[in-house]
Fold each of these.
Amino acid sequence: MDVVNKKWTLEYFAQQRNEVLGMWNTGKDVNLEDSIEFHKKLLAKQNAAIKVLAAQKKRETLLCPSTGTDTLEGHKKLLQYMEKEANADLLTTYIDSLTRNCRFESAEEAVKKSLESSKAVLNGFPSVIHGIKGNREIVESVALPVILFGPSPDARLTHEIGLGGGHTGYSGGPLISFWNYTKNIPIDKIIHNFQYINRLMGYYEENGIPILYCVSGAMPSISPPSLMIAPEIIEVLIAAEQGVKHIQLNGWLQGNIAQDVANILTLKKLADKYLHKFGYDDVTTTTYSVCPTGRFPTDHSSVYALIAYFAFIGSLANVQVLGSRTIDEAHHIPTQEGTAKSFKCAGMINRMVSPQQLDFIDSKKIQEEAYFIEKEVIAILDKLIEIGEDDIISGTKRGIEAGIIDQPYATTQFVKGKVLGVKDHEGAARFFDKGDLPFCDEILNFHKSKISEREKILNKKIGYETIIADMTAISNGSLLPLFRNLT
């Protein structure tokens, strides 16, 4: 498949839509002109992009829980509960895994079982099964904007129906779907599917309906921030070419305050830089942060501390939208009660921190982290642009094959997987193995020196047992493993 970063013509888009809308019977009810008219009624109060831009202007941070269940009545009640009890500012429809993998027949059967048993069967909302009418029923049942959540290798029909049903945003992207949610689907195919989604978003934008697109890049696994920022900016450039105008940048947090804040600030700085480099000067960017992935503690009091801690970091960095994991994470699928309690905790921290205009961003540690993050991301992206002959998609395809852009512990088989991260003595993520990333000696020496400082404290060389211990440290109650576990 010859996929390049060039805006689709309306003729090509229309050809693709005939195929996509025929993927399931609810596709026949999609009508873009009718959908745009429906969205115009939502612009005043229920448009996510407009609300987030207003928050950016006011230096406010909005709360956005991630929620979804399988039946119409169940999902309506869930969103209404989040609106009332969690004090949320944005609501989400998290798409179930069957729908995200286009297993629509299985998803329909699961909904039937859920209705018969009055118990949730799916781990999210099957928007395609419920169609345009059902999605609009969901959106009209609440007063807040609702956005779609869920990385997927093929969410084209999900977006036709989800956006047509009144959702005004989406969190996901081609690179995170490739790295973390597929095994054997080529990057070309996934990017092509997202070009469709982005062109659909662009069509809404061209007709006066702002759509908020939250890029995600890659999930962290003790990952130096450049491993997450570089793929996010690739997603940004792919989306901008297809006409997306409102992009939200996902700042994945991992626990070291200086590195996490530098991550968020550098992500926005470089996203804006590369948008300008390629002439996308009418695209606005906002920021989002969320707790790290990985295992969470089982003890609720410990989880509350983590939720508060990561809400504190996001608030310090003045993100426009704050996400969070929940107190239920280590036990089962999050409940509405658990989610509401988690966001009340995050909201309290945010309200304490946000009014304080702290100037700590100029601190030496944050500036040092930002300097090296920026240097690493530019090294990766500029090399991709070079080997792609100024086409970021061509460069990404070739770069993945060469390991110029890479991820640890990726689920896809189409990746080198040579890079590995480890924590330094302050819990910041460093390169234990940089693989084939195109880094200069200054970058490599910086990471080596930080790892060396931890080795001196431990009085031993860092190896794979340390990496494994680092991955479970937070779930065991600390940013770094207890020294006794490593001696």
Amino acid sequence: MSANADRFPSVVEIVVEIPRGSRNKYEFDEAAGVYRLDRVLSSAVFYNFDYGFIEGTRADDGDHTDALLVIDEPTFTGCHVWARPVGGLEMHDEKGFDFKVLCVALGDPHQAHISRLDQIRPHRLVEIEHFFETYKLLENKAVQIHGWRDRDRALEVLRADRDRFLAEHGG
């Protein structure tokens, strides 16, 4: 186990499901322990960030906590990345409340200076919001974006989701 594991929630372990640049929506099947193609995005958009989940968490929707990873080069499905949460995007979809933690990879020196949401390029945040506003439009699924939240809110969500995961696993 890495020393980073003891630094939760200021450092999290992201498991990448979808590498940046993909239109394929992969999801980890926790019961089977495999990655499955959920669907190909029907809108003319692609993931402009690596997307996955945070190990050892359980969100309100029953899945792991969602993670958006800002990194210069895409990784790959199943890649584990130590990352630093800097904020999050609060939204609702067909499953209810949905919080996506925005992180930067510890191993990417181009992101080393970023510790807060206001240090992310503003246009990148607009692009991410636009992606989530439009990626389900042609599937007739409604998404409501409530906006970006700061690092403290992201850490609060992560602590609650870790508590939920530990309670589920008898910890």
Amino acid sequence: MRRLLYVPVIHVDSDLGSIAPAIDKRSTEICGREHWEKHKQVVTAFWNQIEKYFKKLNAGNLKIYQDGLMADGEHGQKIIEEGAQKGSRNYRIVLDLINRGGEIRKTEDIELLKEEYARILKLAQSKSLWERTTAYIGYRFRRDKIMENRDRFIANTINQTLKEGERGVLFIGAFHDVTPYLAEDIHVEEVKNPQKVRDYFRTLISGGDEKKFDELSKYLVQGLTNND
């Protein structure tokens, strides 16, 4: 049997590089400053729990697949180290796993990443209503297909490189859905429920149901049981 730990990732500013200020500004406009600041606190607590979970995990020979990682070996490790130095909680966890015996593997197709990044950047930096509208329409038109292509590529990579008896971990954005494309003999263990993470974001953006938002926030920050 092949095992895969599935971690739905919530990206922080340090993961977003040069587009982080634009994303933060636009998110504040959409969600409201109070909600957006509360969201940042929730995300910090979320990553605290994920970090505790993996600190207790035996990382020996663990195969690591990472959202956005288009290289392995020395190049891939350099990317992880640079991201960790810039403050990425995700990359700090991955770097710790590497230092304790884990192995990173190329996960993504660079051309698909370039296309999605360019569209997100255009959407985030649009100023006028017309620019925002046309950028959004263009992004929505291609977003689902790009996401599906990325998910299929990632799943195919795991199917081909995770060997019988091996254990891997996938750190992947919460709105991805890689599981349907994984081989049937790969046993997926969700570290956090991806659907609940997605519901949290939808509630955050809609700003409608405060009770549901609080319930989902509590789920995100609650402790994790490590059965390793």
Amino acid sequence: MKISYECGACFLRQAREAMDLACDDDLLKIEIMNDIFDFLADNFSKDTNSNKTGSIMHNIIKTKTGCEDPYYKEKIQGNEIALKYLPHVKEILKENDSLENYVKIAIIGNILDFGAFTLDDDIDSIINESLGNDLAVKDIEEFENSLKKHDKVLYLVDNTGEIVFDKLLMAKIKEYDLDITIAVKSEPILNDACMAEALEAGLDELGEIVEIGAGTVGYVDSEISDEFREIFKSHEFIISKGMGNYEGLTEIDLSDKDVYFLLCAKCNTIARDIGVDLKDMLLFKK
């Protein structure tokens, strides 16, 4: 997906956040921000790839500060908070164990972005309110047909915390007798899940965890490893979580695959690109 004018402000907001997490040196932050201004001035245009631009920007910050994982604490907290609410979510699923409800739970994980929440937030209300809302786009019948049709699926996960809820959907998918390959980032980027966080959440109980060969914002086809490219090619059925993976996968030819996107449209640019309203919950086939 290409950028819109609104992405500029979002890049700068992310840069400030990452710098504040990475270091306390105000002079260094000014230096880094100047570098980012220069980079964006040279690369911000209507044909710019949003994921690759964001990835380069975050790598500038990591290199300059010497902090390889600015969101380290936030990722730990994200899984801890999600695990706290897991019993509550399981009780909800006992009352309604439909495939659609499991999909909703996974998307709610994308809404919450647990790295941004604390134990003081009223997450119970958010979960219950979201479960009461319909999916704005729900290709649920097509999704279930794909679960029945294929014998394996590649599941591209997104954030820590969120992956705890993804695990519930993966368990539901296993009822359809599919082998699940779970793709995580190879290097830290934002609060995205890497191998350590995926293992902490117990995703290895449900499938093989593989690394994409890069630490990029979402999926960037030019950056993945040869090994992961073969894995990607070998899967006809793909589940893509979150906005970053949507942005990246829409840049490549997917005509030979059944690809389903599960996300909440949390920004205007993506909502417009898909043709939905801001904050809509979506399960759709591309």
